[in-house]
Amino acid sequence: MDVYHTPAAALDSLVARNLLPSSEFLAAARRALGDLAASLRERGGRAAAQPWRVLKIAKGGSDGRGTALSGGCDSELVLFLTCFKSYEDQRVRRAEILSELQTLLQSWWQKPIHGLSFEFPRQDRPGVLWFRLASPDLEHWMDVSLVPAFDALGPLNSNVKPVPQVYSTLLSSGCQGGEHAACFSELRRNFVNTRPAKLKNLILLVKHWYRQVAAQNKGQQPACASLPPVYALELLTIFAWEQGCGKDSFKTAEGLKTVLELIQQHQQLCVYWTVNYSFEDPAIRTHLLGQLQKKRPLVLDPADPTWNVGQGSWELLAQEAAALGTQVCFRSGKETSVQPWDVMPALLYQTPAGDLDKFIGEFLQPNRQFLAQVNKAVDAICSFLRENCFRNSAIKVLKVVKGGSLAKGTALRGRSDADLVVFLNCFSQFTEQGTKRTEVISEIRAQLEACQQEMQFEVKFEIPKWENSRVLSFSLTSQTMLDQSVDFDVLPAFDALGQLVPGYRPPSQVYVDLIHSYNHAGEFSTCFTELQRNFIISRPTKLKSLIRLVKYWYRQCNKMPKGRGSLPPQHGLELLTVYAWEQGGRDPQFNMAQGFRTVLELVSQYHQLCVYWTVNYNDKDKTVRDFLNRQLRQPRPIILDPADPTGNLGHNARWDLLAEEAAAYMSALCCMSRDGTPIRPWPVKVGEQWSSRGRLRWGQHAQGRPGLRPEGQA
Q: For the Polymerase nucleotidyl transferase domain, which residue ranges apply (predicted)?
């Protein structure tokens, strides 16, 4: 039954054999509780000084939620009584009601139920009356709480939210956090009980591990007594599954590892749902925004917004979670480590607009130490390739250039991609890049392997098994932060630009040759890697942070089911972000939410997008001018690569899917002011209209740079 020594493939068997509760004991206990409920309904508080009766009884606890664990579990019988007309009434009469319930309970147990023992312990739980039902051998037990409560919800309708007044009245009652949680037991039960069977099994596994941690450290650490409630881990497991998987069938080891990694990030946890309450009501919105400003961890009960179930000491759990992460339960059959789902401890769309800069800093900014290590390693690799490739050949390495997000300064934390472009003298024109490719890749690979053997790096340098003689890649991974890595593609290329100097602008002939050589959009974009890099790298730091935010949003969208077709390339969203900032005023210290809202607005208007720059190519040459005329007559959206005019990054992609997600985010908390009104986007021009002649002339582009504009427009 030890999770620590159970192989990953055997975790499901562990749950099935050892963690599911005894069906015989559960049946007996439920019969007993059904009999008790019937007795309470019948007898009620008729003999009380102020008579009361039971309106309804709701079953909660882990038994009600379907997450009861073998050995010991808990159940909750919430008695909704006629004598409570408000939340406040519960405080006034609770002691009296509990005393009367105790008398009724003792009378009911005079007729014992076969197969169960009854224990009435010292009552040390405020606001409830509790007892224990146990099997004769005491191997199985259930702690049952009787909780008198105000019927705040009335009759429940499936899939219908409670009216906002239920919660606004709760907030105005002056209650403590979670004081009236019992009033919402039905919502709490339904939130968990409707989940897939395998997710409930994962919850059992997490609870079993939690029980092991508590038992091992009982009496040894002060933290043990103040662990967060196990219900917090149930909610965290649901959160991990919703954000990382969402499927009825999944690998249990991956789910467990995801939950444990979230526990280790408890100081950043911000978990809540709006299935029962939301930001629409002003009183609830004010309360929720106040909750979101509190110290982490924050795990709000989905039924009661006043109850942060994440309160408690997480340090011990985090230590044990880190220890478990290295055990056999997270090794696959090939001795490789099980990978967790991609889940962050907070969600972008649930982040208040004013906290977006903090969100980027905490979750999206790469680790500086890792970036420094990667850049140092890449510089060493580039030098090694320049000095050692093609030593005994007429082929020479002219230069090696870093490309992609790492070079631009827009890399995201976690796993990112980059390019290493090797410019060779054996290519004298664009079309020759395809020739000798196998030979060139073979030599570069051999030197990469030699570099791997001869040099020591602060990062883990891995070259995957060679499966395609025309493709070469490698990865650099942190030695201490295994979730931090960069995957590189090594790309041989024709040196169309030569040596670049500050202010360099390619001769028109470069683009004339490109136009005459290409067969499909962006075919030779690697030749312009330096221009693509320079276009972004010179931008203000905060704009690069906005690009990171947009890229992260894009990756979330990429997880959605797409059907046929693919989303636009990520580079297109980077360029759209730069365009939004340029058009929006070029303020280096802009409002992050406003910038993000503007990009989403542009995505939603993709049918009209016409975005281009003329910092590298222009209309002085007739061939280039005619080509740009044709490009800009294409159906919208148009986003031309500022380094390569053949690359239209808006063409043939599922912009409609991105637009749907953009619309959803524009109405989310991350794009709303504190008063609930939408953040206003920057005033950005979306597209250009062509004159009847459809010709271009020089003018001032919308960004304030020289650009091509339709004739007849100022």
A: 381-470
Q: Rounded CA gap, 251 and 329, in Å? A: 12
* Better pLDDT: 333 or 503: 503
> Residue holding tokens 């067969």?
519
Q: What is the pLDDT of residues 112-140, one digit of tens each?
A: 788 899 999 988 888 899 999 999 988 99
CA distances from 1 to 20, 21, 255, 615 (A): 12, 14, 18, 66
Q: For the domain that residue 480 is a member of, what is the CATH number?
A: 3.30.460.10
Report yes or no on 197 lying in a domain: no
pTM: 0.91
Rounded to the nearest 5°, which phi and psi values hold at 683? -75, 95
Q: 423 - beta bridge partners? A: 399, 493
- How buried is 587 (Cβ within 10 angstroms: 0-12 exposed, 13-18 middle, 19+ buried)? middle
Q: Is residue 156 part of a domain?
A: no
Domain count, the chain: 2
pLDDT at 691: 32
Q: Mark which of 461, 495, 529 sits at the end of a domain.
A: 495
**For residues 507-529, b (16+ Cβ closer than 10 Å) or e, as one string?**
ebebbbbbbebbeebbbbbbbbb
Supply the pLDDT for residue 712.
32
**Summary mean pLDDT of the chain:** 91
Predicted pLDDT of residue 633: 94
Copy the structure tokens of residue 712.
């007849």
Among the candidates 87, 119, 151, a domain finishes at: 151
pLDDT at 340: 94
Q: Which domain holds residue 112?
A: 1-151
Is residue 105 a part of any domain in this protein?
Answer: yes
